[in-house]
Amino acid sequence: MIDFWLAAGLLLLIALSFLLIPVLRGRRAQREEDRTALNVALYQERVAELQVQQAEGVLNAAQLDTGRAEAARELLADTEGVEKPRESRLGKPLPLLAAVLVPVLGLGLYLHFGASDKVELTREFSQPPVSMEDMTHRLERAAAAQPDSAEGLYFLGRAYMAQDRSADAAKVFERTVALAGRQPELLGQWAQAQYFADNKQWSPKVQALTDEALKLDPKEVTSLGLLGIAAFEGKRYQEAIDYWNRLLAQLPPQDNSRAALQGGIDRAAQKLKESGGSVAQKPLMKVRVDLAPEVKAKALPTDSVFIFARAVQGPPAPLAAKRVTVAELPITVELGDADAMMPQLKLSNFAEVQLVARISRAGLPTAGEWIGRSPPLASTTTALQQLTIDSPDP
To answer: Are 325 and 300 in contact (CB under 8 A)?
Structure first.
């Protein structure tokens, strides 16, 4: 801020110079004008004396003309180099008054309409915060300076949640939704803050918020996690497992929270077994595989057919796979976690998958002669999928 005020002061001095320089020039012109008037008066007095001397007979006409010429030369010599006086319609008091009022008025307008508080906030945010409380204080000031910034309010709400100030966070997220619209992520954050603000008591308001969020986006992670927590607290362990499995499918394989979430699923399964229940089997993907006519004419009955699901975003290795022969086609198979090629790569661990069927005369799952692919599908898809092997395998 000191640099800002120094720069502002320098600009103010430059502006004042444009007002004061004409005033100073006007004073110099006035002094020159006064000196010229004095010289003219002396000239007129000298000519009068010469005329008196002529009348008394002291000077003749020629001498009078010579004296007048001499007086005129002296007058010209005295006034030579004097600039023509400038006329000012403003007068002297007005520029001086403006020189005083301009900085005062400018300062008042800046303090009223300016953004000195935002300049200071920008300077503060350029420095790393020393603590979570410091960051929260800065976000509060930013929200006060820009009350219509949904982004600033969102980060303030997240900061409140990190400090266990769930009641404050709920109010801030409500304001964020009012500004940015009823976006699923914001609704999920608002529901979560409201749930903890109500001492983990499920309410119709929280239910309505999570329902709306998941209707807009069935993969909204905050709502899925919150519904799993509420179900676990209410001893509805199968519901908790289902919600958390849906959430687990949205997380990338390298996400650090996957281990904690899997731990919650395992605890819920254990609680379910202790209460005499059993964990429901995870849904399977069903796919019916057939051959295109041009492929059917070329494929041999003994050729191997590999049917598998692989992650759209993730490792290229198959998540679930089965092997049949061309002679068995058309065929309907089910793919699930029980068909996982590796324990850490399960179908349910990925949000989107692609179904693939490949014919390989050499019996290799990674290379063949013909192939068929499905569009990206949610891993929770239970509807029967149709897959046709119809293209050469590149």
So the answer is: no
Range of the domain at 375: 285-392
pLDDT single digits (tens) 23-32: 555 555 455 5
The DSSP annotation for 262-307 comes to HHHHHHHHHHHHHTT--PPPPP-EEEEEEE-HHHHTT--TT-EEEE
In this structure, what token pair is assigned to residue 252?
């990338």
Same domain assignment for residues 104 and 136 = no
Report which listed range, 111-125, 180-194, 258-272, is most confident. 180-194
Which of 216, 234, 252 represents a domain boundary (last residue)?
Answer: 234
Asked if the structure places residue 240 within a domain, the reply is: no
User: In this predicted model, what pLDDT tens digit does every residue of 317-369 receive, in sequence order?
Assistant: 888 888 999 999 999 998 887 777 676 678 877 888 999 999 999 888 888 89
The pair of structure tokens assigned to 340 is 């996982």
Quick check: 306 and 358 in contact, CB under 8 A? yes
Q: Are residues 68 and 153 in the same domain?
A: no
Angle at 258 between CA 252 and CA 261, to 5 degrees: 135
**Number of domains observed in the structure of the chain:** 3
C-alpha 370/C-alpha 392 separation (Å) is: 4
124 inside domain: no
211 and 310 fall within a common domain: no
